[in-house]
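User: I've been trying to design a sequence by hand for this structure and keep getting stuck. Would you show me what you'd pick, starting by listing the structure so we're on the same page?

Assistant: Good idea, let's start from the same input. This is the structure you sent:
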């Protein structure tokens, strides 16, 4: 992991940054793309009985969709910096009671495949910008699940039910779960169930983006 980061940092010294939204050289997320971001103002998902509240920063479209693809599928880890900063800015404007940030974990197999957990990279940026503690590790995905994007709402709920477990000492009371994209909320909801089972009292979900189509 440190090696990938080292290579990424080294490349950034040798090559100018390109905008993850439009590809123009310059910033990792240029001003023009930032202006095109659309704040999410839709309804929260219905599948969220374990979540105290759900916060979504932007609509998953346009430059943000491009930027997240760059991060996840082209493995441009540095793109997490501006995206995490956007989440931190959202949290500053819409604060949540929070003792710790916890990224939604990937299963070990997916983690090996991608080399990093994008939710953890985002959560690290949010933690650095806000000073909130980050706890990554004790919440684990114990089952490899199918890709949520391939399933309908009831399939998604079933797919992630009991997929998470907390393996540390007692978790903090008030937790903000961090993820990149939230669609039905089934994944965050299953994480919240695992956290509540070991004593967490308030579990919030903070996502960078959600599709306008909402629950697919
Ligand atoms: Zn751009």
């Amino acid at each position: 992991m440190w090696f990938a980061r080292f290579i990424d940092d080294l490349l950034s010294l040798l090559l100018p940054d390109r905008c993850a939204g439009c590809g123009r050289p310059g910033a990792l997320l240029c001003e023009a793309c930032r202006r095109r971001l659309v704040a999410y103002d839709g309804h929260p998902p219905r599948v969220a009985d374990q979540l105290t509240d759900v916060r979504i920063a932007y609509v998953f479209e346009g430059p943000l969709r491009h930027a997240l693809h760059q991060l996840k599928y082209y493995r441009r880890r540095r793109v997490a910096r501006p995206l995490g900063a956007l989440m931190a800015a959202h949290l500053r404007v819409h604060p949540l009671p929070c003792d710790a940030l916890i990224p939604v974990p990937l299963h070990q197999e997916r983690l090996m495949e991608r080399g990093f957990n994008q939710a953890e990279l985002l959560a690290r940026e949010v933690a650095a910008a806000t000073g909130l503690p980050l706890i990554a590790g004790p919440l684990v995905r114990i089952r490899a699940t199918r890709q949520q994007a391939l399933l309908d709402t009831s399939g998604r709920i079933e797919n992630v039910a009991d997929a998470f477990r907390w393996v540390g000492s007692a978790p903090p009371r008030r937790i903000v779960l961090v993820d990149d994209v939230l669609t039905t909320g089934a994944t965050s909801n299953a994480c919240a169930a695992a956290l509540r089972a070991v004593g967490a009292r308030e579990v919030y979900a903070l996502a960078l983006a959600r599709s306008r189509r909402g629950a697919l």
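That's my pick for every position. To get oriented when you compare it with your attempt: DSSP finds eight helices and six strands in the chain. The mean pLDDT is 90.
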